[in-house]
Task: inverse folding
């Protein structure tokens, strides 16, 4: 089913990561909403990683991977690429662990994320850690960020901390679902957003590891359904960079480790439109008083598509059940957030 | 010091309210922010009542007061007036307890609050509870809402559930601070917003009841510093309806019960400008991914004014301490929220 050369994290690795993250990551709250329950005809538990440090679950994986480095690796520093949240996660972890960071970011990354990463990197330099802490911009549609990372790693002896296709990163991401299940007990279904697949893979390892009967669903943007295609094809399918407001899911393919885990543990992958993401963001803002970034709203949009559609088989299967929804992050510029909410209102006023 | 005719709630009454609210109100999360700690040079704990049911702490007091009614009172129904959050709280509590509600709201109340109250009231009627569940609008600057309420109470035999000057309402509001102290242990100082004074009074009862050395500060809008004036005068001072974006604090005076408790237990009352409220709202949105209404941002704005001002005596007194900040609610229209954030950005771009 998948390459047996790959070393895949298990629930034990997630539990190890949870111990490393104790007192470092926030134990984020699990929130509920009567309106959400009514919409779904089910009991919904939202794990709020938008309230995590640096505003996203990505801190868990990056910190876990960097805390696992040996002394020589820490001394030399690390390199990564990311559209934003992983970049912030690596920069913040570098600051906390005293490790120099080189971070490749797309030049069209959200300004909020760019400035946050630069702030963390500056903090890093102020700590006097060995080597440079710097941010390097690339063109998302032209440059080969992986080749750039390889070059930097070789030239400077840096350890790669990839955003998702990495044993310790995936184990770290799984700690959010572990906390959710510890807090609320067994669930019938879990919805998780999906870009590179690390959050979904880590969450699925936990869900199936603790409660094998639990259904696990990935949700990705309709504009980039590479995971759906990959599961259908039985191997990782690579697509063009998708055009979607879910900037954290603008990945061209899921990771090999993640594909191996997802094809083994995930029940199905759903897709949702950008309009459905904006609706879900509006729900979080108006009903739950939270700011959620477009990627962070994927899981709820996917759950709603399954559960609120009335007569469908998916809705019937969820009725009366206990459902977990992972909110991955909240790092959206307030200007962008306001624009998306205003455009939604305008298009509804027209109808 | 205050009228001994008044019956004042104690920590025991708050504990009774906490038992009534168990499983009905959300136990809202206590969140922290590294940036907040850095700004204050202290450890800050935010009690997030914007994440409470119907988006504000007001649910606690209203539900507690209505759950304490006898069978005949429940049968006859209740009446209240409110600029919004208390109205939603009474309407929702009526729905949960099967009690008819008549709610007086200012015609310029935020549209989000008006529509939410109407939805709860409609749900009430659908439950087939005795008597009408209705919303009556009044002119905040012309009508005498208290006289209107008295008239309705007499004519229809309704029990008054005032928004703040009420034994059981104050006891219910205190449960939020009780949860905060249960969750994080003793604090050195607590900041609480202040309109009619019920939230501050209830919180202070808890703080001084559990930890007498804890400092308690009220924070009200500079445009309406009636509580500050009242403490200075030694009696309740009544002012014109203040013009401030903090619609929940557009009260003309604090309640008699609240004045008695506040003058006995609160160390000082601070005032902040509307601009400081917008800055605090921006902090919550950008750094903590939460939507907080202007009134809900009062306590943090007041704490920042004390703590972030560097050399002042207040800042020195807070340095290295453990500080609680009560966020009272998140019920702000998204359009208003976006406009406030955009205007703030524009005025900063000009500088």
Result:
């Amino acid at each position: 089913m998948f390459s047996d050369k790959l070393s895949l994290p298990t629930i034990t690795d997630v539990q190890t990561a949870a111990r490393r993250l104790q007192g470092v990551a926030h134990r984020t709250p699990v929130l509920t909403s009567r309106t959400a329950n009514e919409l779904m005809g089910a009991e919904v538990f939202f794990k709020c990683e938008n309230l995590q440090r640096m505003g996203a679950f990505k801190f868990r994986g990056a910190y876990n991977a960097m805390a696992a480095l040996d002394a020589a690796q820490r001394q030399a520093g690390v390199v990564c690429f990311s559209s934003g949240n992983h970049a912030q996660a690596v920069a913040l972890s570098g600051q906390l662990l005293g490790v120099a960071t080189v971070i490749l970011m797309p030049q069209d990354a959200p300004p909020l994320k760019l400035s946050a990463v630069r702030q963390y990197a500056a903090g890093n330099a102020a700590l006097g850690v060995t080597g440079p802490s710097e941010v390097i911009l690339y063109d998302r549609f032209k440059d080969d960020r992986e080749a750039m990372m390889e070059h930097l790693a070789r030239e400077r002896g840096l350890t790669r901390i990839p955003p998702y296709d990495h044993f310790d990163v995936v184990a770290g991401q799984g700690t959010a679902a572990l906390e959710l299940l510890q807090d609320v007990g067994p669930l019938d279904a879990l919805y998780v957003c999906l870009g590179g697949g690390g959050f979904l893979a880590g969450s699925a390892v936990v869900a199936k590891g603790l409660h094998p009967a639990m259904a696990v669903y990935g949700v990705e943007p309709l504009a980039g359904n590479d995971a759906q295609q990959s599961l259908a094809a039985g191997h990782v399918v690579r697509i063009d960079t998708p055009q979607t407001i879910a900037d954290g899911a603008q990945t061209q393919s899921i990771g090999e480790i993640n594909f191996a885990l997802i094809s083994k543990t995930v029940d199905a992958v759903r897709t949702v439109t950008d309009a459905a993401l904006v609706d879900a963001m509006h729900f979080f803002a108006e009903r739950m008083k939270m700011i959620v970034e477009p990627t962070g709203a994927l899981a709820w949009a996917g759950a709603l598509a399954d559960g609120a559609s009335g007569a469908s088989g998916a809705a019937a299967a969820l009725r009366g059940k206990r459902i977990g929804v992972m909110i991955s992050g909240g790092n959206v510029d307030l200007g962008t957030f306001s624009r998306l909410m205003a455009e939604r209102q305008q298009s509804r006023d027209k109808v």
Observations:
- The mean pLDDT of chain A is 92.
